[in-house]
Specification:
single chain; 263 residues; eight-stranded mixed β-sheet
Length: 263
């Protein structure tokens, strides 16, 4: 009996010792002077990541593990299969949120918005964080190409559109899903866009997607595409997801964007 118990304990102790954690990516922490706080960044490296090779980088807003990081990793990993070959092997950078209403919105003149979003209006600082701290950190630590993509939905889509207008050159590819351009009564559409300046010459691709999400959001997304499609310097695409709503569109839209843009 003692031998049986001993064998039993040895067998299960072996199983316990053999257990390993399933690791999806790396967690980086950046002390941001622009935001005056620490920010957590989730990093996915493609299978077979080679330090002698350079990779495109995809920056994902709402990028924590309990937001959109895991399922966007899944699309990217699937798209990398040789028999699918939908998207290049890329590094995915998920930016975890601290206060998305603060970080993703510019100041508004609408009193109701100020009441509903009391911390609002710091997108300029967040964009500076991306430009001056996050991108340099990633480019110094990982092997990257000049291809940089941003993915944003809803308020994240608003931020991605703000960057597209103000600092187009920060990214070469924009995946903008259900953008909340309604913010501040669509004042973003009145801005002078960097991509409309005569000296702008960066090859840029933009994918705009929206679902069955109401007249305002649908018309704003279409208007954004119409503005972009008039610009010969930008390769623009639009897709309407009639079977999707604001809650379930992102996965479908990012898949379609990868398929369309050929990043």
């Amino acid at each position: 009996m003692k031998k049986i118990i001993l064998l039993f304990l040895l067998f299960f102790s072996h199983l316990i010792l053999a257990q390993k954690d399933f690791v999806l990516g790396k967690i980086e922490t950046i002390k941001s002077e622009e935001l005056n706080e620490e920010r957590t960044i989730n990093v996915y490296l493609p299978a077979g990541y080679d330090t002698n090779q350079n990779y495109p980088v995809i920056y994902l807003l709402d990028g924590s593990a309990n937001e959109d990081f895991i399922h966007i990793v899944g699309i990217l990993q699937y798209g990398n299969y040789e028999w699918v070959n939908m998207v290049s092997k890329s590094i995915l950078i998920g930016i975890e949120n601290v206060d998305r209403k603060r970080d993703f919105t510019f100041p508004t003149t609408i009193e109701k918005d100020k009441k509903d979003f009391p911390t609002t209006g710091s997108s300029e600082k967040f964009i500076n964080f991306i430009e001056k701290e996050l991108q340099p950190f990633i480019e110094s630590k990982y092997k990257v190409t000049s291809s940089r993509t941003i993915v944003g939905q809803s308020l994240g889509g608003l931020l991605a559109t703000e960057i597209l207008y103000k600092k187009t050159k920060l990214f070469t590819n924009y995946i903008i899903i259900s953008p909340s351009i309604w913010w501040d009564k669509q004042s973003l559409f009145t801005w002078n866009a960097e991509f409309e300046k005569p000296e702008f010459n960066q090859k840029t691709k933009v994918f705009v997607g929206v679902g069955k999400e109401g007249r305002v959001m649908e018309s704003d997304a279409k208007k954004l595409f119409q503005i972009l499609s008039k610009n010969k310097k930008i390769e623009s695409h639009f897709h309407y997801f009639g079977d999707a709503n604001h809650g379930d569109i992102l996965h479908l839209a990012v898949y379609k964007a990868f398929e369309t843009l050929k990043i």
